[in-house]
Amino acid sequence: MPATAFLLRPPSEGSEGRAIREDVGALQLLPSPLRPAVPADQRVFQWRGTRTAPLHTIDHPLILLLALNASHASLRDSTLSSYGAGLRKYHLFCDIFSIREEDRLPASFELLHSFCLWAVAEPSECDTVFAGDIPFEPVSVRSASKYLDAVRAWHLAQGWPPPLTDDHRERINWSLRGLENMQAQRRTRPPRPPVTLHMLGALKSSLDLNDPFEACIWAIASCAFWGLLRFGEATVRSRAAFTPSLHLCREHAFFGKDLDGQDYARLDLPSAKTARPGEVQHVFLVAQDSLCPLEALRNLAAVVPARGRDPLFSWRDSRGDVRPMVRDTALQFINTVFEARGLGSTFGHSFCIGGASFYLSQKVDPEVVRIMGRWKSLAYQVYIRAFEQVASRHVAHLASNYSF
């Protein structure tokens, strides 16, 4: 969803010299034949500039086609979608500041530096110097950096060289750090909440596991929590987006017994954000008593019979058609359950966050958690939430070991 933009209006009588903040909703792009209304993941290739890029190969149809195909295959679908959002933001800035089309591609360092300053700026009502007709639609410094990556990818896809040198990026980062420091008090945002074991139990007790849709919801929730599965890896953006070569299918789930004779399940992810192209990553699940993901998968297979190339996490509609679970649909349903019970809202990463936090609170070796979550570094640490709730389990009463 686009961010909500605002204007700062000049102070009025009785406003004590403070500017007046006026919300103006999401900003809209000006119509242009150069930017057709295509899905976000197609903008990098379908949005054009007015200038013709130089050739980077010999002018032969076969070679040109190979170069075009290679360019289209260079980015993952999820990356293309996020780059599409960044590209939209860039052209919003250009529209607002009346940047000519011929100056947008290729873009200058000065233009992209200015773009990032505007994208991150969030002046307060005390900053009356910014009052006027220029809207602000602020994002984080991290998002702005991704927007620069999007503009870079757009240049490359359209045949232009990268618009920024390393020195240019360092100068922009210098400015962004300054803005981040200035706005630190206003830009703090609470971390995404974890799903807790209590919430997982409340969800299961609210579901009819004989219903195809709700059986699918429970299988996703339990596997995401216990298997540290990212929600987007178990769902799709839309029904039409399901692709067997990219998404989990029934044939990607395997059941077996480990060296101790204990049941386990393995999900083979054909594509993952943390995987190299063509690399298959594995999600491992083991028995968990009444909240067991293995039983959730077996129940789903019984309630929603499907073929091997059908979505693993799928349900049947009123016509009997097998349908993949759409991410936003699943989250909306889950949040309806949680909010009805006074448990708040959850986000796509909340199950993975909750699972990692729970394992660590139970003194599971952090290296095991890292392997299960398929993290290549200590990045899992950002998933630990509410440490104060479990700190005593790790460090309380240690002085008593020394007679104090």
TrEMBL record:
Gene3D superfamilies: 1.10.150.130, Intergrase catalytic core (1.10.443.10). This is DNA breaking-rejoining enzyme. SUPFAM superfamilies: DNA breaking-rejoining enzymes, lambda integrase-like, N-terminal domain. Keywords: DNA recombination, DNA-binding. It comes from the Eukaryota. The keyword Ubl conjugation does not apply. GO terms for biological process: DNA integration; DNA recombination. InterPro entries: DNA_brk_join_enz, Integrase-like_cat_sf, Integrase_recombinase_N, Phage_Integrase-like_Recomb. One of its GO terms (molecular function) is DNA binding. The keyword ATP-binding does not apply.
